[in-house]
Amino acid sequence: NHADELTPKVRAALARIARAGIPMLSQSVLLRGVNDDAETLAALFRALVGARVKPYYLHQGDLAPGTAHLRTSLEEGRALVRALRGSVSGVCQPTYMLDIPGGHGKVPIGPDYLTRAPEGLLVEDPTGGRHPYPPIAGDEA
After folding, report:
1. What spatial distance separates the first Cα and last Cα of the chain, rounded to whole Å?
2. Is pLDDT at 88 greater than 60 in this prediction?
3. Which residues sit opposite 34 in a β-bridge?
4. In the chain, pLDDT over 90 holds for what percent of residues?
5. Distance between CA atoms of 57 and 15, rounded to whole angstroms?
6. In sequence order, which residues have a C-beta less than 8 Å from that of residue 50 and are 6 or more positions away?
7. Is the terminal CB of the chain with fewer CB neighbours within 10 Å at N or C?
8. Which contiguous run of DSSP H or E holds residue 32?
9. At a CB cut-off of 8 Å and minimum separation 6, what does 57 contact?
10. Where are the alpha helices (DSSP H) in the chain?
11. Is residue 10 pLDDT above 70, yes or no?
């Protein structure tokens, strides 16, 4: 959940696993006060990739009792994921996931980049700029 957890001992163990040919994926949790800013997440994901671990999921904190102080809002999480899009490579991009309360499964909740406007589709860049996207015959985005 934080780059500081990748100590030399952990990195050595990960290197042994990678040399054995075992693919490694990470599942991190977004935690208030631990990794809830873009710079910290970018450092974590770059460090994981440097250790040959693919950042796979970034989980929104579950609604487990006693953990409210560690949860960010969904809006904060989506803004963090959006901020990462413009600053780290695609390999460093995990999928932001929400485990739906009540046992209904997990779903990706990343930022949306396409919106419909009267003049057609608009696509939003990582800095928030909106740009028209020309329609294609039969396009139902």
Report:
1. 35
2. yes
3. none
4. 72
5. 21
6. none
7. C
8. none
9. 25, 26, 27, 28, 94, 95, 96, 97
10. 8-19, 38-50, 74-85
11. yes
